[in-house]
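The freezer alarm interrupted the setup, so I double-checked each line after restarting. Inputs confirmed:
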Amino acid sequence: MAESPLRLERVDMVKIVSLAKRRGFVFPASEIYGGIGSTWDYGPLGAELKRNVKDAWWRSMVTERDDVVGLDSAILQHPKVWEASGHAAGFADPLVECPECRKRYRADHLDDPERCPDDGAALSAPRMFNLMFKTFVGPVEDEASQAWLRPETAQGIFINFDNVLNATRMKPPFGIAQIGKSFRNEITPGNFIFRTREFEQMEMEYFVRPDEDERHHDYWIEQRRQWFLDLGVRAEHLRVRAHEADELSHYSKATSDIEYRFPWGWGELEGIANRTDFDLRRHSEASGKQLAYFDQQANERYVPYVIEPALGADRAALAFLVDAYDEEQAPTASGGTETRTVLRFHPDVAPVQVAVLPLSRNDRLVPAAREVYATLRRSFAAAYDDAQSIGRRYRRQDEVGAPLCVTVDFETVEQDNAVTIRNRDTMAQTRVGLSELEAALRERLREMGSRRV
Ligand code: GAP
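Predicted 3D structure, all chains:
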């Protein structure tokens, strides 16, 4: 991917949140009713961005691999799933409350868990607060009809282990992947779409021989780090951090996080855990159905260990957005300079790959540009824009991260049947005949790192 030597090192979150709203990436949810706090809706460009992130993940984790298959399990599962998995009893954070200002905090997120960070008052003793959302299935609200919204997609995979084995004849090492919504009643959601109560996860459970777990764990940590690099995230903004023993989840033997350097500091982007045989064993015990693999060659039955790369689609979208943000001084038509805001998205996550622009809203240029757009949108994520001056429109496309613009001008219709391709990062313009346009766009996008076109 073309790198500008003068990339902005850190961006203020206020700028990200403001651009996201202005350009239609992310809106505050229920805004006309005053909002609902730490809940967000994705606008037209944000929906495309998140879909591209999920597609890129699915392509690399499922489509391009022989050893991983997909699944789409239900959000509501039998309550016994969450009892067996340990979530009903143990999926909790320590909640502390300030008696003065009534604010609530996660004790493990505070420098001093005994004092309110706002007014210094002594906080209450921590009590464990279960993060699962409760609901009722059917018209009667009693204990028998109580259910939970899933706090992770992983359990839907474990309870389908046998179904997938029987349907596909997969053999360890193999994986089952899924993307879907998860829900956690977080005590302190925040940092825009980083931590929310409703979010999407992209998880893969990779089943391996128990004596091969560590090798596969190392492999997946490296694979997942490489995925972010391949999609243009700057290496110096990523690091891998192994969990200390006291941080491990109740199911984990070892976990490493891929962390991203967010504007407020390093934060977890993705966790890669060694879940051992914990989940399959617990579900076998609770359901009475044996969840194991019979290796015919070795004439041996074993419960596989599980390596789990687990990533939030929203958190990944935020990392791509923050990492892409750049500002630079660019020349204006009148000979001065102005600040150019540009999202340097990798072309495979960019919501718009090619924007088609007539030089002006002229009666001959508009139909010609619309025809180019109609052709290109069959093969590319394309957009059309004819409002305001061409300079303003280039800036607008820079601000939403379109890697390429195609401009239709008077020469196109009067002389050469050619158009101008403008590169977002270098702002270089080249003339290309309409008959070669698609091939030229593909070539340029590949030069910018695309594997999709
Ligand atoms: N199945 C394992 C699991 O759920 P996790 O570390 O709790 O592990 C995995 O979650 C990923 O899901 C995190 O690394 C993060 O990207 C995302 N995630 C977790 N909680 C989230 C939240 N409240 N809001 C947004 N994303 C979240």
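Quick read of the result. The chain has two domains: 13-77+152-320, 352-447.
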